[in-house]
User: Fold this.
Amino acid sequence: MSSVRVRFAPSPTGALHIGGLRTALYNYLFAKSNHGKFVLRIEDTDQARLVPGAEDYIYEALDWLGIAVDESPRQGGDFAPYRQSERLEIYHKYAMQLVEEKKAYYAFDSADELQAMRNRLKAAKAANQQYNAITRVSMSNSLTLPANQVDDMIANGVPYVIRLKIPLKEDIRFEDRVRGWVKVHSSTLDDKVILKSGGFPTYHLANVVDDHLMKITHVIRGEEWLPSAPLHVLLYRFFGWENSMPEFSHLPLILKPDGNGKLSKRDADKQGFPIYPVNWTDPQGVHSTGFRESGYLPETIINFLALLGWNPGGELELFSRDDLEKAFSLDRIVKSGAKFDIDKARWFNQHYLRQKPVEELSEYLSAALLQQGLHSSTDKIRMVVELLRDRIVFPQDLLEQGRIYFVAPAQYDQQVVNKKWNREVASVLNQFSESISACSQWNHEIAHNQLEKVLEKAGWGFGKILPGLRLALTGMGKGPDLMKIMELLGKTETIERLNHAIERLEPIPQSTNDDQEKT
Ligand code: GLU
Assistant:
């Protein structure tokens, strides 16, 4: 059994988006490829920003993709609880340990006092307005106030926070697996609050304490957390845990499709693609359609996300979850931002949809038709699926493109009518309709032979009749093989549709277009 333990540690402050999902996937794949454990920890210490439903949403999204976790608030595990709001005593204990060791201190400054400090520093044109080794000496904290006064204030319930006592001159270095050595000087950091006045820890304290206690070996998370990492390293140092500190890998940013800046929900909305894994309605009632509901398959999203920041090397782009569980490695995570190319996701979807058994797609189409009150035979549904499966990107395209084979066209594409319909076309189709009514059998070959005969008589080629034939049968200008369409419609329906079009369509006086369709 490997000792690798990784975690996905989302804050339930909104819907998990595609970037968070990628972090979850990379952690999962890394755990799998190392026979390690994948932990889900809910970081809900910022109580003011909690969004109802956001935690359930995380499970729903992971379940949809089949990303199984080994330990979580729901499943429990050896290091439970896994929800930070249930671990407050633990954080309190560690914060107190730092206070006792003089690595942290109580600060009683009110919001007004903090603002006054910032104003003072601004007026003095100081480089920054931080609460730090220089400014802390003039503030109201346990480093400046007499010990008995501090005790009294605490006993009297004066609100306080606990701040980290960041050393003035210390180098903080760590090696990020993706970015290499990161070096920061402690003078750039401020005395971060680690315990808030309500008794809740801040992210930094809770995150480091939990990663340590939960024996996390690798931290794999988004690049936006890179600036926090030096502070975390310092916390590990303060606690004396630096030797067993997890290894960091910060994943590259996900960029807009044109590579110009970070991808946002607004970009996705503007360009009409999803950003959330499954449907989400935010607390203001704004609804966003998920990848799942838009028709993307889990296989697609896994493959797509895996390549959004991880370069397998070589030409191969199609990776199943099984492949990835074996092949994934931190060494191939790329440093530069990953462009979000929705066309690529569509391409994957088309591929994975084609791999689905005809039965599965037929069941889907059958159910979709039923929902519209349309019944049909299994055979016909299957034929439609076979006809369309190479032409669709999403399962719902089956209904959209296939509906016409179950219901006669209610209208005809007027542009196609204008360009392709005329008296001669109507007359040839009429002859065709009459000729096939005599056929005792029916399939695409018979349909083809009959049409050929009629065309020979008229002295026409196939290309001249096919657009009008398609228009009459489907109301449209484009679509799959017409002979197959006639086979699946059946002889009677083919005749009915032809006659209906001939009666209904106003022939335009002359042939205005000689665009021809190939057989
Ligand atoms: N709670 C943080 C988040 O929401 C976790 C960051 C980390 O993985 O350390 O993403």
About this structure: The first strand starts at residue 5 and ends at 8.
